[in-house]
């Protein structure tokens, strides 16, 4: 395509300008610009647990399993894995066994879609369910920017609901729904990350989960539950997901496999067991979602689905065992982080730090630090340059404004030793800031 004269302005999607900060772009760039700095900025899974050389073995296990269970020739199966495939996915029967076993979510294979990560699942869900004129998507604020920025660029109405230490504020949610209704708007979706939220690290207690489901019944909205970190709980006995508690089919469930297995597989599971009225008929929502997906990515790569299928078959449809060491490792990192905070930020020698505090996450990859000064994008650069540490300002995750005096640290893809050094450097940076702001 020949572009018009570059001096002529191209007419682009004006909504691109509504995204205040290209968070991912900025963080990638700063990591490239300061390669020596320790990065506690991105929630990447720990690469020490990657074994991609095992992929061919898993692929073979899947082919053998399908050959045995379906009676087809392995050669024919291999050929079909090189072809276009079903929009809903090809390993749905295996995935529902995993959901039942590990997460107590009981659904039929036809109620699921295997998607290109949960990011695609969000695109499919929003574009299938929402109309731009009347529907409002309520999101936790702060939230994972994948949902926020997608909704904005695609022109959907998205509004924030504050989160507190227990996840989305149910009081504010109800107020917001009533306010939307008073303006003639329809709250269609409420997006939440109940387990070890990105970015705060907080989790939603069981009673709040029940109450949120009740509110969905009362006000007739659907909950979009995003679970990317649920199994990374530091102790046993954690609440079930909203989907597992969902007796009235109010929840659309997004299960990312990026943190659990590999982001490079680009696999997510979308669970939608609702029936909806469409064209005067009741139809399965999952069928409509599959129709939409057909026009987005056609189908999720069969090759990566086969690898995941092989992982499930080999592990008897449960990822618990293979994730045990990863969970132990992330808990040890959280413990190291808290120990380093205690060493460098509390106690008599560190009286200067008394205005600094943090939450204590019970799972996941993130922690929030509260500081008595504003943390801007420029501060990230200063800290990287002068102290060799990269963090993320919490304000990046707010829809409009907020979190100006908060920092998100992601501690998943660094060693315990690096964490200790990072907290030491953070304390050095804080000292300069407190001195400057006194
Ligand atoms: C809460 C949350 N949801 C979804 C994603 C993206 O998941 P996926 O790689 O499955 O698209 C992330 C990635 O960081 C996340 O933190």
UniProtKB/TrEMBL annotation:
Molecular-function GO terms, alphabetical: transaminase activity
Cofactor(s) essential for the protein: pyridoxal 5'-phosphate
UniProt keyword terms in alphabetical order: Aminotransferase, Pyridoxal phosphate, Transferase
Alphabetical list of SUPFAM superfamilies matching this protein: PLP-dependent transferases
Position of the signal peptide: none
Domain Aminotransferase class I/classII large: 94-426
Entry-linked PANTHER family: AMINOTRANSFERASE, KYNURENINE_ALPHA-AMINOADIPATE AMINOTRANSFERASE, MITOCHONDRIAL
Protein name: PLP-dependent aminotransferase family protein
Organism: Hymenobacter lucidus
């Amino acid at each position: 395509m020949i572009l018009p004269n570059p001096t002529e302005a191209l007419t682009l999607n004006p909504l691109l300008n509504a995204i205040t900060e290209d968070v991912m772009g900025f963080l990638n760039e700063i990591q490239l610009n300061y390669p020596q700095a320790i990065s506690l900025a991105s929630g990447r899974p720990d690469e020490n647990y990657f074994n991609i050389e095992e992929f061919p073995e898993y692929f073979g296990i899947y082919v053998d399993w399908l050959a045995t269970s379906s009676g087809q020739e392995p050669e024919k199966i291999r050929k079909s894995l090189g072809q276009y495939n079903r929009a809903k996915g090809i390993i749905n029967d295996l995935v529902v066994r995993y959901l039942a076993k590990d997460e107590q979510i009981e659904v039929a294979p036809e109620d699921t879609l295997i998607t290109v990560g949960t990011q695609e699942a969000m695109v499919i869900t929003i574009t299938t369910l929402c109309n731009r004129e009347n529907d409002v998507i309520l999101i936790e604020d702060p939230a994972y920017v994948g949902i926020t920025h997608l909704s904005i660029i695609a022109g959907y109405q998205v509004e924030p609901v504050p989160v507190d230490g227990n996840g989305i504020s149910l009081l504010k949610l109800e107020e917001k729904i009533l306010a939307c209704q008073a303006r003639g708007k329809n709250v269609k979706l409420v997006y939440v990350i109940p387990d070890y939220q990105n970015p705060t690290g907080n989790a939603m207690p069981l009673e709040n989960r029940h109450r949120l489901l009740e509110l969905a019944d009362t006000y007739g909205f659907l909950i979009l539950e995003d679970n990317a970190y649920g199994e990374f709980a530091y102790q046993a006995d954690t609440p079930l997901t909203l989907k597992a508690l969902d007796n009235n089919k109010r929840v659309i469930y997004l299960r990312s496999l990026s943190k659990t297995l590999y982001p490079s597989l680009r696999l997510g599971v979308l669970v939608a067991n609702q029936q909806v009225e469409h064209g005067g008929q009741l139809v399965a929502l999952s069928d409509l979602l599959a129709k939409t997906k057909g026009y987005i990515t056609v189908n999720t790569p069969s090759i990566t689905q086969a690898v995941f299928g092989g992982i499930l078959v080999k592990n008897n449809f449960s990822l618990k065992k293979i994730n045990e060491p990863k969970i132990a490792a992330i808990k040890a990192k959280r413990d190291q982080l808290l120990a380093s905070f205690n060493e460098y930020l509390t106690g008599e020698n560190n009286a200067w730090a008394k205005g600094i505090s943090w939450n204590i996450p019970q799972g996941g990859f993130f922690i929030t630090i509260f500081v008595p000064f504003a943390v801007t994008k420029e501060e990230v650069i200063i800290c990287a340059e002068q102290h060799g540490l990269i963090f993320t300002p919490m304000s990046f995750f707010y829809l409009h404004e907020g979190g100006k005096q908060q920092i998100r640290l992601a501690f998943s893809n660094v060693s315990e030793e690096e964490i200790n050094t990072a907290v030491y450097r953070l304390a050095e940076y804080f000292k300069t800031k407190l001195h400057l702001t006194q």
